[in-house]
Amino acid sequence: MKIFLAWWEAKSLNEIIETWIIENLFMSYYSLRTKKNILELRELLSLRRKKCKLIVLDSWAHTFFSELSSEWLSVSVHTKKTKTKESPEIYMKNYLSWLKVFHPYIDYFVELDIWEIVWQERVEFWREEIKKAWLWNKCITAYHPNIMTDEYFENMCKESGSKYIGVEWDRPNRPRLPYNKLIKIARKYNVRLHWFAMTKKSVYFDYPFFSVDSTSWLAWLQYWASITLNRDKQVQATRFKNKEQLLEVKEKNIHLTHSKQKKTQHMLRALYAAKAYKVIQEQSEHLWKERWITY
C-alpha cells in the first residue's frame, strides 16, 4: 500500500523534499493556484517531480463548496463555510485550464468530487471535458458507496482511463462501508483503489487498497507532538500540553527531533514522521505480498 503524505504546496518544505525521503505526496490545487508567480510554481513542482515517485493533485472541491443539510448526503459536514465565491462550473473551468499547463508535473489528479451539489450528470459531463483535453488517463474518479450503486461502481471500473478510483473515508457514527466488496470488483478490472483521508494505521493491514492519503504525519506541527518509531517499529506519537513542554522534552526517540532553532525543529520532526510512515508503507506492502496481493 502506498501512503501519500499531504500538504506539500509550501516552498518552505523544499528542504525536506530534497532529502529524497518523501516517495508519494498529495497536493492541493486550491492552494497551488494561489501561487501567481509562474516561474516559482514551475520550480516548486519541478523539484517535487524530480524527487518523488508518485504525485497526486486533489481538486479540493469537496472541501471548499457548501452543501445543503440533508441526511442522505455523504459529506462529513453538511453546512460548511464557503471558501470560494466561484461557482462549481467556473472552478472546474479553471481547474482544467491549470491541468492543461501543469499536468506533466503530476501523475494523477482527482476529479471535482461534488456529486451532492451539482448531481452526477454534471460530474459526468466534466469527465467528458477531461477526455477531450486528453487528460483522462490521469484522472482519479471518486465513488461514494452509500449514494451510488455497485453497478455504477463496476461501470466506473470499466471506463476508468487511469485505472485508479478514489473511495470516501469512514464517516463518524456510520458503519464501515463494504470495502472488501469494492476491492474485489476493482481487482476484476485491474483497477487500483485509493482511500481518501485514511489515517488509521491498523487499516493499512486490514484492507488491500493500492493507496491512502493522510495528514496525520503533520501531528508534529498541528498538535504539539513528535512522531517517531518505537523499538517494535510501530509509529509512536507523543503529545504535549503546550509548545514549551514539547521543546523541553528529553525522552529517547523524541529529543533527537529538537533543536534550538525553530526551523530545524520543524524539519527534523517532519523527517522523522515521514520516515515512520515510510516504514509503515514497507510493512504493509510486505504483508500483502505474503498474502499474494500485489499491484
What does this structure look like?
With about 300 residues, the chain is an alpha/beta fold. It has two domains: about 1-215, TIM Barrel (Alpha-Beta Barrel); about 215-295, no CATH class. About 40% of the residues lie in helices and about 15% in strands. It has eleven helices and ten strands. It has helices at about 15, 30, 40-50, 60-65, 90-100, 115-130, 150-160, 180-190, 220, 245-250, 260-290, and strands at about 1-5, 25-30, 55-60, 110, 140-145, 165, 190-195, 210-215, 225-230, 235-240. The strands form two sheets. Strands 1-2-3-4-5-6-7-8 form an eight-stranded parallel barrel. The chain has a two-stranded antiparallel sheet with strand order 9-10. Strand 1, helix 1 and strand 2 form a beta-alpha-beta unit. The protein is globular. The termini are close together.
Poorly predicted runs: 67-83, 250-260
Query: What global shape is seen?
Result: globular
Q: Could you give the order of strands across the largest sheet? A: 1-2-3-4-5-6-7-8
Radius of gyration: 20 Å
Q: Helix/strand-derived class?
A: alpha/beta
CATH hierarchy class name of the largest domain: Alpha Beta
Assembly type of the chains comes to: single chain
Relevant CATH superfamily of the largest domain: Aldolase class I
In whole angstroms, the N-to-C terminal distance is 9 Å
CATH topology of the largest domain: TIM Barrel
Q: Which architecture of the largest domain would the CATH scheme give at its second level?
A: Alpha-Beta Barrel
- Estimate nothing, just give the exact number of structural domains: 2
Q: Total number of helical segments?
A: 11
The main β sheet shows up as: 8 strands, parallel, barrel
Question: Would you report the number of β strands?
Answer: 10
Strand content: 15-25%
Would you list the SSEs in sequence order as H and E?
Answer: EHEHHEHHEHEHEHEEHEEHH
Helix content: 40-55%
Q: Mean pLDDT, as a whole number?
A: 79
